[in-house]
Here is the input.
Amino acid sequence: MEYNSMRSTILVPFIFALVLVITSVECNSEGDILYSWRVLITDPNNVLQSWDPTLINPCTWFHVTCNSDNSVTRVDLGNAGMSGPLIPQLGSLTNLQHLHVQINNFTGTIPMELGKLTHLIGLGLSQNQLSGPIPSSLGNLRSLRYL
Here is the structure.
């Protein structure tokens, strides 16, 4: 009986630590995605100055909102004078509900990977310099209410 109690005492903190590591890995990957996009964006008004890749997760960055699990749910970069591409990796922000980049100078095509964002409610792309067709994968976005 004493052995089982000791094993539980050791196992519980280990499991808790493992959950924290898994959670922070997910948050770091979201931060990595957003920062890799940030590197490609021209930001003349320095709107993205708080996007610091050394932080544990991007939830403290301006224009980024997260849920209680520290997963990115919203990115608001509308009317910020930015230019650059939309990157396919944005499709890996699995809990993203809102992506607003309207009234900027984003260029290139709309990544088909955005069609993987099954929780997406709002996608603001208007008044940019985007080209090419709207990807058919956006038809998979059953929660989308605003395009």
Observations:
- The longest strand covers residues 72-76.
- The first helix runs from residue 2 to 40.
- The domain at 2-140 is CATH 3.80.10.10 (Leucine-rich repeat, LRR (right-handed beta-alpha superhelix)).
- The chain has a mean pLDDT of 87.
